[in-house]
Design brief:
Elements (H helix, E strand, L loop, with lengths): L2 H10 L21 H33 L42 H7 L10 E12 L2 E9 L9 E7 L5 E8 L10 E8 L5 E8 L5 E8 L10 E3 L24 E3 L4 E10 L5 E9 L5 E3 L5 E3 L5 E10 L16 E9 L5 E9 L4 E4 L10 E2 L6 E8 L4 E8 L5 H7 L1 E2 L1 E2 L3 E5 L7 E5 L7 E12 L4 E4 L6 E9 L2 H9 L25 E7 L7 E9 L5 E8 L13 E5 L8 E8 L2 E6 L4 E6 L11 E6 L6 E11 L4 E3 L9 H26 L1
Parallel strand pairs: 1-21, 4-37
Antiparallel strand pairs: 1-2, 2-3, 3-4, 5-6, 6-7, 7-8, 9-10, 10-11, 11-12, 11-13, 14-15, 15-16, 16-17, 16-18, 19-20, 20-22, 20-23, 23-24, 25-36, 26-35, 27-32, 27-36, 28-29, 28-35, 29-30, 30-31, 32-33, 33-34
The chain binds 2,5-dideoxy-2,5-imino-D-mannitol.
């Protein structure tokens, strides 16, 4: 069976998912009587008619939504786009719905085609958001994700599914779970996987019920011998958790992976919520379970931070303070093990984390630095980055972070493209032993295998005000590693000068790459065209603290990234710790419409979505720049690799190592038998 077969199999089968639907408990199955038979026939005819009308209505509606002004619409304003998510009880999902009043850019087909990425995970088409239940099983990395199989906007959320041998190349599988029960009818929302000692995998996820109440549900793989985990069986016991007293019916979602506590002989897991009577506090509740069917809410709260609002997609995991490797989620706290608490803030849609101490007996986690608590301190990423989730990879002993990267263009354009959003490059996470106060995030080393020919430049003197082209040809798929140095004498002289602009500098409120200070900005211009009419700047800016000591900022400037105005173009950034004797270093992954940057080994990271109109295909260029007024910058080295494209396509038998393809064929036969059997029954009824 080839990829097409799988595609048609998954779309032509009576259900677009891998398991048989159950009836609603209020609609028990009964044997049809002769009168019922006639009723059924008339009902079927009527239902078919209604269905046909619905299809026609939907098609015409879709037609009106997708027949957009295109090349002739330059002067038009975008029509009102509705917000997606908040009404249904989750954070805003619309791609930049604030853009509804700006003029529409005449995007051409080739401009839009160029935006699709080459080595970031994307489904074949349509909408994707949060990563769900990532895991490693029998030789495959599994990725599930929030997916709308019908459109490039959020809605009708199912679990898409893909597998990979290396976290880089991906094979699409049939949808794993669809919203077909009363307890998830409004969406199979975010969830996490836990491996049980008997080899089973408990998948806990949030369902939005027919009444839009958020409940937690359980699913297991239907066949553990299947390395592809194609079929998922939702538990008869669902929902296994409903919002507890005092918690809003739409403020209870996104269960974490569970961790085992031997002293309790039980599993614990966290769920995010909020408490508005506690000054709009974001909170993490902890539940205890032995069998994942029945649960006890632990007294107290794992952690709460006032003013931060609803916590989505909470993640809670241990990090080693002495070894450069990841830890299993059940690793207990200890002298060399701290715990990271992360939450996605519904209010500002950013992912915040803090490092602290976990007191399991007291059901309490305490941040190391209360000033850098969850939601008010460190972020995984200072750009576009949300709803992330980690998993422990037992093969490479690492903790890997996945995240949803949304669009910064308009929904109108997304519908034209036929897709929206993607996942960030998977990042390995470590505790930063040098600073002791932050995490390090770095693209998993598997990504390095996409590196092709490299260009190396060393010891380039970037005079104040200089822009230097780096001749690497087409610059759309790159991995860049650069190291900068400022002569200590220039640094010392500069920090003593009176330059009020450098005290309290903030990337987001600055003038970006165009604003000139004594020691910055300097860095790289990516996705630029020859005359830099479009460019995305990735740069450092050295400012001063009130006491005069230097402080380094790391920023992205998207303001000149595109000539189009129906886009969100922002200034992003934060400070990055630079220790004595360290040079300034940055790694940048450029992949068409996404730019991901990692400063100082991953202490501060920024992700941008940008949509140039001229700096595309063969016209993309790369530059170094130094817009400081008063200091030469030495580029000690810059190494640039062109990146190969990762393959992403439907799974077929050639991808099988012996058992999986066999299973796919087997399931196809099973579907055929069920189909023939159904025809036979219908004939008998006739
Ligand atoms: N996305 C899911 C929710 C989660 C939100 C719905 C975060 O479970 O809270 O698609 O993006």
């Amino acid at each position: 069976m080839d990829g097409k077969d799988i595609e048609s199999w998954s779309s032509s089968s009576s259900i677009p998912c891998s398991y048989p639907p159950l009836l609603h408990p209020d609609q028990p199955e009964t044997a049809p009587t002769p009168t019922k038979k006639a009723c059924i026939r008339w009902f079927s005819i009527a239902a078919s008619g209604v269905l046909l009308l619905c299809v026609v209505a939907l098609l015409s509606n879709a037609g009106s939504r997708t027949s957009l002004p295109g090349n002739n619409g330059g002067s038009q304003l975008t029509r009102h786009r509705r917000s997606r998510g908040p009404a249904e009880g989750v954070s805003e999902k619309s791609a930049s719905w604030r853009l509804r009043t700006v003029p529409v850019f005449p995007w051409t087909k080739s401009m839009l085609l160029w935006q699709r990425t080459a080595f970031h995970f994307q489904p074949e088409k349509n909408w994707i958001n949060d990563p769900d239940g990532p895991l490693y099983y029998k030789g495959w990395y599994h990725l599930f994700y929030q997916y709308n199989p019908d459109s490039a906007v959020w809605g009708n959320i199912t679990w898409g599914h893909a597998v990979s041998r290396d976290l880089v190349h991906w094979l699409y599988l049939p949808i794993a779970m669809v919203p077909d029960r009363w307890y998830d009818a409004n969406g199979v929302w975010t969830g996490s996987a836990t491996f049980l000692p008997d080899g089973r995998i408990a998948m806990l996820y949030t369902g939005s019920t027919t009444e839009s109440v958020q409940v937690q549900n359980l699913a297991f793989p239907a066949d553990l011998n299947d390395p592809l985990l194609l079929r998922w069986a939702k538990s008869e016991a669902n929902p296994v958790l409903i919002p507890p007293p005092g918690i809003g019916l739409t403020d209870f979602r996104d269960p974490t992976t569970a961790w085992y506590v031997p002293s309790e002989s039980a599993w614990l897991l966290a769920i995010g919520s909020k408490n508005d009577s506690m000054y709009h506090a974001g909170i993490a509740l902890v539940y205890k379970t032995n069998d994942f069917l029945t649960y006890e809410l632990l007294p107290g709260i794992l952690h709460a931070v006032q003013g931060t609002g609803m916590w989505e997609c909470v993640d809670f995991y241990p990090v080693s303070t002495e070894k450069a490797e990841g830890l299993d989620t059940s690793e207990p706290a200890g002298p060399t093990v701290k715990h990271v608490l992360k939450a996605s803030m519904d209010d500002d849609r950013n992912d915040y984390y803090a490092i602290g101490t976990y007191e399991v007996g007291m059901n309490q986690w305490v941040p190391d630095d209360p000033e850098k608590d969850v939601g008010i301190g460190l972020r995984y990423d200072y750009g576009k980055y949300y709803a992330s989730k980690t998993f422990y990879d037992p093969v490479k002993k690492r903790r890997v972070l996945w995240s949803w990267i949304g669009e910064s263009d308009s929904e109108r354009t997304d519908l034209k493209k036929g897709w929206a959003s993607l996942l960030g490059i998977p990042r390995a996470i470590l505790f930063d032993q040098k600073t002791g106060s932050n995490l390090l995030q770095w693209p998993v080393d598997d990504v390095d295998e996409l590196r092709m020919n490299s260009s190396d430049f060393t010891d380039i003197n970037l005079a104040a005000g200089a822009v230097v082209p780096l001749d690497v040809g087409r610059a759309t798929q790159l991995d860049i590693v650069a190291e900068f140095e400022i002569a200590p004498s220039a640094l010392a002289a500069a920090v003593t000068e009176a330059d009020v602009g450098t005290v309290g500098y903030n990337c987001s409120t600055s003038q970006g790459a165009a604003g000139r200070g004594i020691l910055g900005p300097f860095g790289l211009l990516v996705l630029a065209d020859e005359d830099r009419s479009e460019q995305t700047a990735v740069y450092f800016y050295i400012g001063r603290r009130a006491d005069g000591s230097p402080i380094t900022h790391f920023c992205h400037d998207e303001i000149r990234s595109s000539k189009a105005s129906d886009l969100e173009k922002k200034l992003y950034g934060s400070i990055v710790p630079v220790l004595d004797g360290e040079t300034l270093s940055v790694r940048i992954l450029v992949d068409h419409s996404i730019v991901e940057s990692f400063a100082q080994g991953g202490r501060t990271c920024i992700t941008s979505r940008v949509y140039p109109t001229k700096a595309i295909y063969g016209a993309t260029r790369l530059f170094l720049f130094n817009n400081a007024t008063n200091a030469d910058v030495i580029v000690k080295s810059v190494q640039i690799w062109h990146m190969d494209s990762a393959f992403m396509r439907p799974f077929d038998d050639h991808d099988d190592d012996g058992s999986s393809g066999h299973r796919l064929t087997h399931y196809l036969w099973l579907d055929l038998i069920i189909y023939l059997f159904t025809i036979l029954i219908l004939q008998l009824i006739e």
